[in-house]
Design a protein that fits this description.
One of its GO terms (biological process) is protein localization to cilium. By secondary structure, the protein is mainly α. The protein contains 2 helices and 2 strands. Strand 1 and strand 2 form a beta hairpin.
């Protein structure tokens, strides 16, 4: 009866017969909730550590991918510049070939002209010798 009167007043006895303001069942639930919250916080801290490691790994991979991307862009630009250089060199060589062909044609015409002159001079010499 005394416990009922104390219970009505909001006072309770615990397992050690100490006077408590909180109901022992509620106190036990509170302690259990506190333990569950502690375990939950531990799991959250572990999760944050795992996520932090994952984020760090993803950042490293992103940096590596960016580095490889820049290398690929550099290689592509180098390849384009080499192709342009080859085109320019090809054009220069074509121009040089055309110039050499023109020079060859001039030399051929000059040679033919000189051959005609030689033939004329030989003919003149032959006529001069026969006249004496």
């Amino acid at each position: 009866m005394a416990q009922a009167a104390l219970g009505a007043a909001g006072l309770h006895f615990d397992e050690l017969n100490k006077l408590r303001v909180l109901d022992p069942a509620v106190a036990q639930q509170t302690a259990q909730l506190r333990e569950e919250c502690g375990a939950f916080l531990d799991r959250i801290a572990e999760f944050q550590k795992v996520v932090g490691g994952l984020i760090e790994l993803v950042d490293q991979l992103a940096k590596a991918a960016e580095s490889e991307k820049m290398k690929a862009i550099g290689a592509r630009n180098l390849l384009k510049s080499i192709a342009k250089q080859r085109e320019a060199q090809e054009q220069q060589l074509r121009a040089l070939i055309a110039e050499k062909k023109m020079q060859l044609e001039r030399y051929r015409i000059e040679y033919e002209t000189l051959c005609k002159i030689e033939a004329d001079q030989n003919e003149f010499i032959d006529q001069f010798i026969f006249q004496k």
